[in-house]
From TrEMBL:
GO biological process, one term: epoxide metabolic process
Organism of derivation: Nonomuraea rubra
Name of this chain's protein: Pimeloyl-ACP methyl ester carboxylesterase
Family membership: Belongs to the peptidase S33 family.
Keyword Metal-binding tagged: no
Residue ranges annotated for the AB hydrolase-1 domain, each copy included: 128-195
Active site: D178 (nucleophile), Y314 (proton donor), H382 (proton acceptor)
Keywords from the named record: Aromatic hydrocarbons catabolism, Hydrolase
A single GO molecular function term of this UniProt record: epoxide hydrolase activity
Keyword Hydrolase assigned: yes
Residues annotated as domain Epoxide hydrolase N-terminal: 4-104
Amino acid sequence: MNLEPYKIDVPQEALDDLRDRLRRTRFFDDLDNEEEYYGISTAYLKPLVEYWADGFDWRAQEQRLNTYDQYKVEIDGTPVHFYHVRGKGPNPVPLAVHSGWPWSSGFSLPLVGPLTDPAAHGGDPADSFDLVIPDLPGFAWSTPVGRGDLNYWKIADIMHKLMTEVLGYDKYAAAGSDYGALVTSALGHKYADSIIGLHYGQDLPPGQFANERFWDLTDGAKIPEDATPELRAGLENLVSTYVSHVAVHMLDASTLTHGLNDSPIGMLAWLLRRWKKWSDKRGDFAANFPRDFILAEATAFWVNQAIGSSIRMYRNAVRYPWVPSHDRRPVVEPPAGFTFLLGDAYPPGVNTVEERIAAFENGPTRDSFNVINVNAHMKGGHFVHYENPEAFAGDLRETFRKLR
């Protein structure tokens, strides 16, 4: 297919409207929330919103995002925006990297250099990849969607067509984290004959959200009475970190979206709570997530009105449940590698690299995958591609060194 290059170029009137809305923000008093016990505080949010209105340079961020070759096509009635960066090496492996929620393709751009040009990053040119980094349909620049039924396994069908029909690869590799890990697993299950191998930032097999209490990540489980203080603290932290957004996205997706789609500060607060809460608590959030990066991501969701279509992915995993294509085992057949970062809240009670690997090897998801490589690292939290791209890229190269 002859692809036309795409450049991000937000109309000035959309930026002017955003600035006007931000300047008219009605902040609330937010009493007794200095430590963000109740969520993102006004004290934290107000200066960020004021900077978004009168200091933030979106055009500079556009220039950064337009550094790499990118395209936008329509597949199955759905727009798909993606970066396509060719590898510098003797035999680059085509690799699709899928991000999660609330990530855009921008969270995976730190992987471009180490994966496409490993020699320039202290590696072997034989480990290079042709990198494809899409925005998942309904996220950021892969909008506006013309259908309301998208979820991870339907996106997997679209991604397979992107790699094979649009880009012409007979065989390809896939990687993913968070919701993108579910897309990757759905690909590995249904299209195993086309998959060279897989690499993950989280161990999520297909079939997620299939339990009766689909809105409840704990599935109704209580903390065991004999839990150690450390395990109890870890379980409480897991709940406070991840449970709220799943419950609301599952039970009230559109109700929430009406507010977030109309209020940039409301949307920013909802996204920012995830970025702050899910990232590595041992790190410096302000240093690791600079305000220009945060606001670039928020702007991408705002100007594309992508917040609602991205949120709906959760409930659609229930309304349109995943159905296996076959009964072979493991359910995800291609060889798979894993990168786990210990700054994530999951699994609770894990403090060392050895414990994290053991938790996976002895855990409930292990048998779902054809595991060939497992690594864990102290640095980074839930946003694996962005928070520790060096580790993810290094582990991924190690995984595919076994498969080339």
